[in-house]
Design brief:
- The chain is mainly α.
- Helix 13 crosses helix 14.
- The two termini are 49 Å apart.
Length: 349
């Protein structure tokens, strides 16, 4: 609203042309750090269709805010001492990937004459309180619709796939084992042997352990486990297990779903009341996540297919064939980069 964004595009025009982009492409690229959907829609300001398509093709490499919870989770767990530096590096890798792919696409697909930079510079204005509130309400409403729609639906679907089919024999087995623990505790209390609080703590720990074992065994036989195991050959060369693979797969619906999927798969369905992030981080370490695996996972999340909402926006703006192309080439690029990165890290570490 201040009128500075147009001037920023004008200032960046020379640099953007060296990268094979138009000066106005700077605005959608910056917006991509918030959300790729409005960033893709904002490419309408580009008069040349080739420039629009090129800008849209590389926009998913700008780390949207939905990816941030994944970065925070893994960076906080494995690189807490250098968190700021690692997080900055992640965003920088995304920018470098966008630059490399922009130059490649410009040379291979869009090598026609460039359109000269022409842009009207609006006067500087002071944003009004009313306009600011209207923008805040509009963006907040969009996010609530997204969260209450696709993200909630995806989270429920992932939980259901991880819970079903119900194994009655498994439930009966663990119900009997829990009853044995409770009976032993009550018998000990009745005999008056030992400290009541210590015995209570031990009983709760045993029951919690049995519950986790039950959840783990149920997930091993669940629908989502079967899906993950079918695709395990895709993830194993990257050092990822089927649970990490399923988390990435569900991230195509919405990147926010990656963390909630990991919470369901690595932790079970029980709620985390005290510090859910630190609890999930501990579970990841228990299930074989290492700094190398964390780096691979983060890079894959950074580079692979944008979410459904972004793909639909691409389809509306330039056609569904380009949406499928973006989905395909970004995922293949993510897999190749992560595979090469793993070989390098395995030699170094």
């Amino acid at each position: 609203d201040t009128g500075y964004m147009a001037r920023a595009a004008f200032i960046m025009d020379k640099l953007m042309h060296k990268l094979g982009l138009h000066g106005k492409s700077f605005i959608p690229m910056i917006m991509g750090f918030g959300c790729n959907v409005p960033a893709i829609m904002s490419t309408r300001m580009l008069e040349n269709r080739s420039d629009r398509i090129l800008t849209i093709l590389i926009n998913p490499f700008m780390s949207c805010s939905a990816r941030l919870p994944v970065y925070i989770l893994l960076v906080g767990a494995f690189f807490s001492e250098y968190a700021a530096l690692v997080l900055f590096g992640i965003y920088l890798v995304g920018i470098l990937a966008a630059i490399v792919m922009a130059k490649l696409f410009k040379r291979v697909l869009f090598h026609k004459q460039e359109v000269p930079f022409v842009m009207e510079l609006p006067p500087y204005r002071m944003p009004t309180f009313r306009t600011t509130i209207r923008h805040m309400w509009s963006k907040g409403e969009q996010y609530l619709k997204k969260m209450g729609g696709i993200i909630m639906f995806a989270s429920i679907l992932i939980w259901a796939l991880g819970y079903f089919p119900v194994d009655k024999e498994l439930e009966a087995k663990y119900t009997a084992r829990k009853a044995e623990v409770t009976t032993a505790y009550e018998a000990t209390i009745a005999s008056g042997i030992g400290n009541t609080e210590v015995l209570k703590t031990e009983q709760e720990a045993k029951l919690e352990s049995l519950h986790r074992q039950e959840v783990s065994e149920r997930q091993e036989n669940s629908y989502i486990s079967r899906l993950g195991r079918v695709m395990e050959p895709v993830w194993s060369p990257l050092g990822l297990d089927w649970k990490a693979g399923v988390s990435l797969l569900t991230g195509v619906a919405a990147k926010e779903v990656v963390v909630s999927t990991m919470a369901v798969l690595y932790q079970g369905e029980e709620g985390m009341e005290e510090d859910d992030t630190s609890t999930l981080q501990a579970r990841l370490k228990e299930h074989g996540f290492t700094p190398v695996v964390a780096i691979i996972f983060i890079v894959f999340v950074l580079l692979y297919s944008p979410c459904f909402a972004a793909l639909i926006a691409i389809g509306k703006e330039i056609g569904m064939k380009w949406a499928f192309f973006v989905m395909g080439y970004t995922t293949v690029l993510a897999w190749v980069v992560c595979f090469v990165l793993k070989q390098i890290l395995d030699l170094i570490v």
